[in-house]
Amino acid sequence: MNYRKLGSTDLTISELSFGTWAIGGAWGSTNDTEALKGLETAIDKGVNFFDTADVYGDGHAEKLIGRKAKERQEEVYIASKFGRGLDFTDPDTYKEKQVRSFLDRTLKNIGRDTLDLYQIHCPPMKIIQDGEIFSVLDKLQKEGKIRYSGVSVESTEEGLEALKYPNVKALQVIFNLFRQKPVDELFPKAIDQGVGILARVPLASGLLTGKFQPSQAFAADDHRNFNRDGAAFNVGETFAGLPFETGVDLSQEIEWIKDNRETMAAAALKWILEHDAISAVIPGFKTAKQVEDNLKAIDVPGFSQTEMEQLKSFYDERVHAHIRGSY
Question: For residue 33, is it within any domain?
Fold first, then answer.
């Protein structure tokens, strides 16, 4: 495993870490036994950072990672998110009393007194601009209830706005071969300010595994079914904002990335790790095999400058115009 600093914090985290949305729910059926095996495998392989949220299975994902971390002697860093359990557009959701309630529940779920990273979960731009929530997080940090705070954002513009607050130490952004916009402006500013970048939705909800066909069916409780056109939340969270069939076609155009790199998924994750601003990429998983498959990205060959330029042109010319939602 390779490790990187989370921005200017004192956390040194595995460059390939994991998100836990899939083991909490909204990705079809889940199996706790398999989820725990996946967490066990990840930690065995040197993964020391996991991202979760209070709405992933209504706290179930938090409980799973808390349970597994408690069993291990290794230091395991846990990040969670808040704000989506209530009306995320309502300013009252971000008031101190409510945020304390969210945090207390999260700490209880994971079985700790302090959370390593607490992130606002995709707040509206108006909440970021208002800034009151950042004062609340600063207070929680001074009290020792959280070590660091950050923001998970939907768009580059929201990320740039969040960087105006000095105690924001991490940004979660949608970043993958189909969503390259953050590279030009957001990443350089994050580096300058010592803010770590966590790359979420790195495989575009599975499109970048290269395994889907246009006829692919998803379970009724899978967001790739119920949110593929943004019916439940921001359409950009599902398939990186691309219409599904378009995404399948585009993924086929870049199948060449897997040459000498084991799988298309490993190659897509490796491409993300080629960017210096990235502290960690956080794919999801439901099984130990998926964990092992994603971890292959660490050891596969990197990309040449020519290949990087080719993939940038592919995004500019073939992908960008099709993206829906905030980005």
Answer: yes
